[in-house]
Amino acid sequence: MSSTAESLRTALRGQDGAVHRRVRAAVLALGDRPRSDMTYAEEAALAPALLRSAIAELGGSSVAIAADVRLRGSLCEWAAIAAPHLIPVLTGHLDLSVGAIATLGTGAQYQAELLAELDTGAAVGELALTELGGTNGSDQQTTATWDAARDGYWLNSPTAASWKFMPNIASATPRIGVTTARLIVDGQDEGVLPFLLRFRTADGSLVPGVDVHPLPDKSWAPMDHAMIRFNARFVPRDALLGGDWAVMTRTGLRCALPPRARFHRAIAMLGEGRLDLANAASAVARAGLALLVNYATARRPGKIAMIERGTVRRDVISALAAVYATSVLGYQIQDMRSRTRAGDPRQAVWSMLAKPISAYTAHQVLLTCRQRAAAQGSLRANWIGDWIGTTEGIITAEGESQLLLKQAGLAALAGVDITAFELPATPADRPWYLQLLVEREVTVAAGLRGHDPAAAGVAIDRDTAAIELATATAERLAATAVHTAAHHATDPTARALLESAAAVYALERIYARGIWYAAHRQLSQSAARAVEAELLRHRLVLGEHLDVLVEAFDIPLAALDAPMASTDYLAWWQRWAGWPGSPASGG
């Protein structure tokens, strides 16, 4: 790898190259890939064995993997790239099951016994949170009724709306995990809290009191989704995961928080999974671009290579700038997370910002890759369709992304000023285009606080204004992340490329919102011309260095064994067909 590519790679992933190489080797050793030769159910059934193998390859302990921010994050990224049947279950196992026990557990024997099975992957971890009637936060309808005589709780689903919806639990393999339920003690509602339980035994049988009905296939990322109905499922007192802040005694619940605040305190654990998913989305976007650039460089539909055509080159440049922005942002938040004390409530909001911007960006980038690759991009053999499916799942998983933006924006009204969020080591001086992003963000925030959604442009109410604010904040942070990386880069060419990536990303967002800037008198005619001129200049800089920008992604294309990843896609198809070459011309 060239010194420039190495400097760019450091901006993307820091100095933890050894961790990434170790994880990459472990994931590639799984041999997973898109499988057109299997049914949907057969593909979904691959996940448990892949999970056990990945855990074994990385030391044998889910607990250790989950506790290591870098290792866990790297595993999610490489699984998203090269293990399409593993990534759908990974954060549910590591973050939402193992991580939930680590964060909210008490060390009780019951919890330790179930954790031991999750640790090796003998059982797959689940989170049963969403209900058929919706997630509904503190208004969930599943109940956990305290039985002092039995020293435990009875889980029940009193209505169809309370059935847990879409956990991957339909197939007969061991499953252990967490469900959320409304705690009822002596007829009193104590709020929604998490409970640890076994869903399926070691032989895959359902435990008494748990009814499961498989759901229809979805159109991406095969998983054994199902509905769950609890029918007098008993769990012991230690099933409650409340840490030291929600403790069940024989005389009742001891918790200082008001009942409706307990759910939100408990699901703070989702922040880790959301950040892992954000970075996984950026990872598959990087892989998609590496694949497209490789193919577009090799394909010559006329006298020039496909990559030299302006219609392809322009889209690749914009996509590269966006993926650098979200990738560097995700890494910097991960680095900050590894240095921040546990329990900081702002970290959950950072994840609410990171997942939507990364997932939406990756989805759009991968659609661009699929469309520019035309017929080749439509084939599962070229991976892009599966990567799009992965991002579709990420957009929805662990909090629908638009709702996360709304919650992050509304946090400004609850004492968490997201406009004040700054990444570590951000330079004091901002380029003028970053300052324009700041000015829009501050204007929208002031309007939201002043009950004036029109400050956000065409927002129709408070919620849509909150989405505009959170989007503005996330975009400002993403552009600033790359600008900061440029400031600290040691290689001069890498520094210039990162600065151009920051400029293209920021200026494209300003250009797209030109009407808003004009309406709020924040963009004069001369400034608008400067936006156009600088955007063109920085696009041309990136366009001259596509090869090194992609080299820094460090995607092992040969390991994907795909026609678009090959050095000679024509030869790949010849080998696939078993045809040694073109037939002789007829006379």
Contiguous uncertain segments of 5+ residues: none
* Overall morphology: globular
Radius of gyration: 25 Å
Q: Helicity level, as a percent range? A: 40-55%
Structure overview:
The protein has 587 residues and is of the alpha+beta class. The chain contains 23 helices and 10 strands. Strands 1, 2, 3, 4, 5, 6, 7 and 8 form an 8-stranded mixed β-sheet that branches. The protein has a two-stranded antiparallel ribbon with strand order 9-10. β9 and β10 form a beta hairpin. α11 (310-339) packs across α18 (492-512), α16 crosses α18 (492-512) and α17 (462-488) runs antiparallel to α18. It starts with a helix and ends in a 10-residue tail after the last helix. The mean pLDDT is 95.
Task: Chart the SSEs and their pairings.
Blueprint: H1 3-13, H2 17-28, H3 40-44, H4 47-57, H5 62-67, H6 69-82, H7 87-104, H8 109-120, E1 124-128, E2 143-147, E3 152-156, E4 164-168, E5 175-185, E6 188-200, E7 210-214, E8 225-236, E9 247-249, E10 252-254, H9 259-266, H10 270-298, H11 310-339, H12 345-372, H13 374-377, H14 384-396, H15 401-410, H16 432-449, H17 462-488, H18 492-512, H19 514-519, H20 525-543, H21 546-551, H22 557-560, H23 569-577
Parallel strand pairs: 1-5, 2-5
Antiparallel strand pairs: 2-3, 3-8, 4-8, 5-6, 7-8, 9-10
Helix pairs in contact: 1-18, 2-6, 6-7, 6-10, 7-8, 7-10, 10-11, 10-12, 10-14, 11-12, 11-17, 11-18, 12-14, 12-15, 15-17, 16-17, 16-18, 17-18, 18-20
